[in-house]
């Protein structure tokens, strides 16, 4: 028969069945030879879902899961906790397991130093914060160095007094002075006894030897006291305690990992006092790893000798400032006895006139400027020869000025050499 004679064409065949779909046609009472107009869906009774046993409550990942995965809880436990509903014994056990897992998760992340850097970026970059203006950067590592008896400990004590007056606690590791000498200096500076009792934690000749007990006690000290700054006086002695070699970069990094890095992870400013060694007055004694670990290095040197009977001065010069902190290029401090004022320790600019080294540098900088304005585009050697004076010191001054972003001395590569010019705004 034809379509014109009143019959409807047969519906098209169904699509191929997917594996596992057998029986679907029968459920809907469908047949390929039934006319389309006659086909109608046949109601199918809703079958109840087979009961599935609830998986056991679990709060921590299984062994073999991501070791840094944060533990989770079923949401109904969170709702019960929020509404103050009582837990079943099983839920109590799961909640306790969750708290243990969360503590372990935080411990693992802390041990690895794992930080959500994207979150830090979302909060916005901020310039370094100064714990002690012009000297100590908050939550960073500073090395204060210079020859013996150059006022390094005085400067650190003055910084500690500033932190305590601002409400912070200071941990002081003393391997050099001893209790009587340090107390005498605090009295001389006029630091209040009650302030020291409340906010100064003094460790006299401690054994920071890297042992498990020592490191655990160190962590406990920071957990309990929550200090803002820790001072170590001095580096050579604490390394010797641990049987480490100050000329070994590996040994230095190991000690830092035991004692400096745990403090910094807690946001504590760390200050290590060290001595100038060998013939290199511009860096601390021993391995260069010390400089690599410090974000700021401050060189301290006497300008005019001081004593209990005489007023003198010293200067502080940053030789490294990786974080671009707000540290002046040179600072002067008066220190010693003044007949009218008694014991004095305070910043000053009067000592500038006594600083022969600084005066020499200023004079050489003026000569460098004059030479380059008259004849720009000189090599470093040619520039030093035209300027005159101590050639080695002048070469070092040229390099330092060229590295200073605020200096008008500029350098540019020209073939295999570097050429220098003076560009004034």
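^ structure tokens above, recovered residues below v
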């Amino acid at each position: 028969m034809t379509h014109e004679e009143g019959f409807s064409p047969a519906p098209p065949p169904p699509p191929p069945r997917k594996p596992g779909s057998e029986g679907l046609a029968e459920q809907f009472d469908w047949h390929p030879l039934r006319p389309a107009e006659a086909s109608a869906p046949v109601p199918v009774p809703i079958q109840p879902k087979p009961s599935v046993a609830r998986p056991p409550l679990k709060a921590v990942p299984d062994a073999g899961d991501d070791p840094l995965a944060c533990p989770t809880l079923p949401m109904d436990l969170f709702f019960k906790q929020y509404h103050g509903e009582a837990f079943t014994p099983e839920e109590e056990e799961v909640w306790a397991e969750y708290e243990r897992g969360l503590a372990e998760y935080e411990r693992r992340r802390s041990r690895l130093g794992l930080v959500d850097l994207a979150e830090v970026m979302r909060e916005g970059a901020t310039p370094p914060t100064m714990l002690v203006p012009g000297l100590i950067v908050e939550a960073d590592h500073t090395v204060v160095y210079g020859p013996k008896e150059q006022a390094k400990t005085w400067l650190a004590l003055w910084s500690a007094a500033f932190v305590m007056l601002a409400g912070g606690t200071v941990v002081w590791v003393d391997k050099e002075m001893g209790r009587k000498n340090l107390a005498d200096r605090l009295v001389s500076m006029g630091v209040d006894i009650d302030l020291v009792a409340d906010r100064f934690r003094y460790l006299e000749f401690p054994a920071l030897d890297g042992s498990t007990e020592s490191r655990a006690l160190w962590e406990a000290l920071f957990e309990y006291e929550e200090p803002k700054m820790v001072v170590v006086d001095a580096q050579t002695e604490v390394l010797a305690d641990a049987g480490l070699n100050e000329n070994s970069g590996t040994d230095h990094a190991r000690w830092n990992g035991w004692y400096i890095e745990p403090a910094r992870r807690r946001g504590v400013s760390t200050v290590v006092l060290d001595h100038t060694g060998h013939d290199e007055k511009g860096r601390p004694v021993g391995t260069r790893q010390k400089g690599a670990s410090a974000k700021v290095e401050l060189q301290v040197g006497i300008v005019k000798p001081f004593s209990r009977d005489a007023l003198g001065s010293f200067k502080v010069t940053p030789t490294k400032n990786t974080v671009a902190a707000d540290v002046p290029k040179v600072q002067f401090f008066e220190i010693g006895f003044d007949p009218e004022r008694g014991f004095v320790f305070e910043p000053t600019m009067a000592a500038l006139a006594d600083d022969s080294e600084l005066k020499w540098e200023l004079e050489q900088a003026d000569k460098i400027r004059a030479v380059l304005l008259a004849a720009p585009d000189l090599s470093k050697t040619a520039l030093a020869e035209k300027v005159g004076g101590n050639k080695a010191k002048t070469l070092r001054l040229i390099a330092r000025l060229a590295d200073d972003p605020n200096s008008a001395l500029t350098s540019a590569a020209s073939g295999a050499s570097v050429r220098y010019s003076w560009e004034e705004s």
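The two ends are 101 Å apart (CA to CA).
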